[in-house]
Amino acid sequence: MRLLHTSDWHLGRTLAGRPRTAEFTAVLDEVVAIARDERIDCVLLSGDVYDHKVATAEADRLLFDTLVRLHRERVGVVAIPGNHESPERWRALALLLGEIGVKAVTEVRPPDEGGAVEVASRDGREVAYVACVPFVPERFYGSTRLLFEDTERWSREYAQGMGDLLRAMSRGYRTDRVNVLMAHLHTAGARLGGGEAEITVSPECAVAPASLPAAATYIALGHIHRPQDISRAPAPARYAGSLLQLDFGEREQEKSVTLVEASPGRPAVVRPIALRAGRRLVDVEGTLDELAARAGELGDAWLRVRVRTEGRSPGIADRVRDALPNAVQVIPSYTRPADAPGAPVLSTLQPREQFVAYYRAEHQADPSPEMLATFAEVLDLVTKEDA
């Protein structure tokens, strides 16, 4: 069988408020073209398709358009939710998605109760058995383990217990099928991509690679944005990574999808296929004149700019963006003088006074009456909501 593993699309993600719809459209076009040209039997979509639990209409359009096109190319899809999206929403969509060949496993269940699905090859000669483990938040691990009969032998600690769960999910493996585990989780030793939610990639949540099932033909992992093999796993295992450089922590990563050629009884042959769509994320530094001189060489890359000045320079961010329109973050760089003696401690000031002190420090001027009035309106609104 020919499988295409992809993950962490994060549809709906912006960059400092800049929409990236055109980039997502282009890279999903690339994924569909790869699936068509490589005669893929099934796409393994290992979580975090959306960036937010409440998906935008544009994110929905991108997803559904892609899934429909895969269906027209006779490519099946198996999908699980990750930590960024709503399992309940996937559950509501599952029946409709099933009509276009998408098998969505929306929650952890024992393999014989819907936690595993079968997918046939195009010619019907081979079958992939995909055991699915959507993201399990640490706070829900206890209720998840109760779904299985022999929980008294499972560890109560999250990382070790998830290893028990993975072994339980592999019980349905047989030597006459392609055995796949697809999971959205953090494995110990994986190199982080830079764009993951820190609370979900802590060492306490990291599952030991040795806990991954040795009987698997291939292990399709999601959650970590840097594409990489898990070398210490007992079977071929890989994070497909995100489709685009999602933030500046991923700026040097080459993005890809993973082609998996698999047959019963043999380890999978795994080959990453590079993705070319999407704009690069680049760090640049210099004086305003130096940055302006480099504008032609930076193309359409999104920029994080560190601009060197001799001191505070009100309006410097606007002047940088005049020279470099793709600058999404501007960081002034200068030697900051020590706080003046007797300067008030911000924590002792009222909110309005804190705002005025901050504005004076950053702009060396007082905020205008109009700005103070707007601040007062926002403060009043927030105060009412908190009440």
Helical percent range? Answer: 25-40%
Number of domains: 3
Mean pLDDT: 90
Q: Which CATH class of the largest domain is shown?
A: Alpha Beta
What class, by secondary structure content?
A: alpha/beta
Assign an overall shape: globular
Taking pLDDT < 50 over at least 5 consecutive residues as the criterion, the unreliable ranges are: none
Task: Record the strand order, biggest sheet.
Answer: 4-3-2-1-11-12
Strand content: 15-25%
CATH topology of the largest domain: Purple Acid Phosphatase, chain A, domain 2
Structure commentary:
The protein is α/β, with parallel strands linked by helices and 387 residues long. It has 3 domains: 2-274, 4-Layer Sandwich (Purple Acid Phosphatase, chain A, domain 2), CATH 3.60.21; 279-337, Double Stranded RNA Binding Domain (2-Layer Sandwich); 345-387, no CATH class. It has helices at residues 21-37, 57-72, 87-98, 141-145, 158-169, 288-293, 316-323, 351-363, 369-386, and strands spanning 2-6, 42-45, 76-79, 102-104, 116-120, 127-133, 178-184, 218-222, 228-229, 237-239, 256-261, 269-274, 281-286, 302-308, 327-333. The strands form 3 sheets. A 6-stranded mixed β-sheet has the order 4-3-2-1-11-12. The protein has a 6-stranded mixed β-sheet with strand order 5-6-7-8-10-9, with no helix packed on it. The mean pLDDT is 90.
